[in-house]
Give the backbone structure.
Amino acid sequence: MNIQLRTTVAKGAKLAARGLASWPYWGAMLVVLSIVYKLNWLDHQLNVGGMNEWKWKVNYGAMVIATFWVVWLGRRARAVSLAVLDLIISVLLFADLVYFRYFKDFISIPVLLQANQVSSLEDSIWSLIHRGDLVLLCDIPVALAYAAWACWYWRPARIARRNGGVQVRSSSRSRLMLNTALAALLLAMGISMIVGPVNQQKNGWASGLFVGNWWNIPIYNVTGLLGFHGYDTYRYAKEHWFSGGVSEAQVQEAKDWFDARKPLQEQAESEPMFGAAKGKNILMIQAEAFQSFVIGQSLGGQEITPNLNALIGKSLYFPNFYHQTGQGRTSDADFLTSCSLHPMPTGSVFIRFADHDFNCLPEILNAQGYDTTVHHAYDGSFWNRNNMYHNMDYGKFYSIKDFDEDEPLGWSIGDKSFLQQTVDQIKERGASPFYAFAITISGHHPFNLPDYKTEFEVGDFDGTTFGDYLQAAHYVDAAIGELMDRLKDEGLWDDTVLMLYGDHDNSLYDKKPYEQLIGKSLSDEEMDAIIRKVPFFIHFPGDANAGVSEKAVGQIDTAPTILQMLGIPMGENKMMGISMLSAAEKPVVFRTGGFTDGKVYYMPSNGGTTGGSCYSLADGSAADVSACDAGKEAADRELRVSDVVVEHDLLPELKKRTMNDGFAAMNDQKKSAPAWFDGRALFLTYLRALINGLTFSSASSSVGAAM
């Protein structure tokens, strides 16, 4: 009996082993396990939330959905398809990791539309790749080798020889029905593994996350990386292919928001600084990746920024000036500064919406008789600048083709040559007054300028990217010093307002070198603020108005600041910022949904719309998050309004409605006027409203025609 039992068990085991060995979907299971392992490894590299139970389920569900369809394929087609799928997903994970190290964000569809710029980022990309990253690609040779072997081993002629020359047809109706049932089961399993955890989080700590779309990292922490890319594809398709347009409620919310902001902006028109630089030239420099923490710092007894340190005593300096950029980085800073609206949560406004109507500085200053130029020693197609600058109504865009490449350095020519040639270009135009916007490039990641150009010893930081950044900052400071000398030599210094600010952070997020340079440990809030703070200088002729303003301000406030300086009313222009020179205050809102108002500093959590960290800036202590609730709600609304306005090109409609409201108010005034009212005051009021509403559009039309 025992012998028979053992024999039966042995036969059963052999049969089971043979069945498992012939199971046709081992390849799919291995691909699923391999990719989920890589997703777990990648999550540890990103360090933004951790692999919780929900994310595990979502990742498995995403891979089941990615592979369920192979059950309908034959052995060879299945092996090839799985190898290609493994290759595509692995390369995507690798690209996401490298992109995240630079941008602290994930690749999105709008970013892919900018893929033609990758060749220009080659040096930065290589510096962001680590040897250990090959774990994401190590199984690809095995998958491709197996696919090649399967194509050889399961070719029809070979199978026929193994079966004595008989061709075996494996696709029967019953087999098709069985595969269809299996595919349906797998698809249902995959969907349930995603929908369940996502809905559970949406109904909890991630409530409202998919409405605002402020930040991609919390979305990733709900959906996992593959789920994020699926959602991003859906989001892009909905916005661009299946959008039902903007609702009346959204338009009204935007109008109400701008109506509420306008009194704060108009306050500047009755303050002493209104017209303080009326008729003066403006030279504004946007310095690549230039951050505030280098200002006033020394290393080995040598100042990192000696020229800017000296300029502080002669200028109006804002140490609490924050960059507000998103994925568009340099182009976002340009958009924020010139047009006073927020960038989009994904991609760049310059690329996605270059044909939309914005109230930007060049267009406004053209109407005031200014000669407007923009200078950048790089390819004009990068960030779609050719098209965007034409839409912004610059009188002339000087790109790399307009510069002599006499100082090859880094990405282009060095900033010393660039700024000197910019002055040459301004002189050649001979226009007065002028508004010139110069965008530097020598401080671009990975900051690998030659030592003979930087002439700055970084000590213990030598050989590190952080040390390279300090050297690049020293070089840029020297270039600005030479620019100031040149402006004085050319007689422009006493008739020009020089403005300078940093465009975004330096993409270096390791806390240790900052602590080593500054000489103290940093809290999370302090580190976040250091990353976000960039310098802002305004030097008036004759060193007027010099001092340090502690006011919390951001890039979005730059255009209103220039309008106040030059004595230009806001009128019907739609901007979100308020002048930095004004006594009026508002919070500085970050693209992540964080904000600061100079009293508190709010950092949203990596995972959702609730929670986060609230700090009191009085002593740097952590406050109850409820102290930031009102500010967070206001920040969310500001971002929501900006996104709707930018995406749906609403500024013309908002200006039209404002004019209509003005006409309606005057009609009401006329109806209620007493019988003895002769109508002269009403006529003058009507005429002023008409001029305010039409001057900007008519001036921009004439400028556009001239171009």
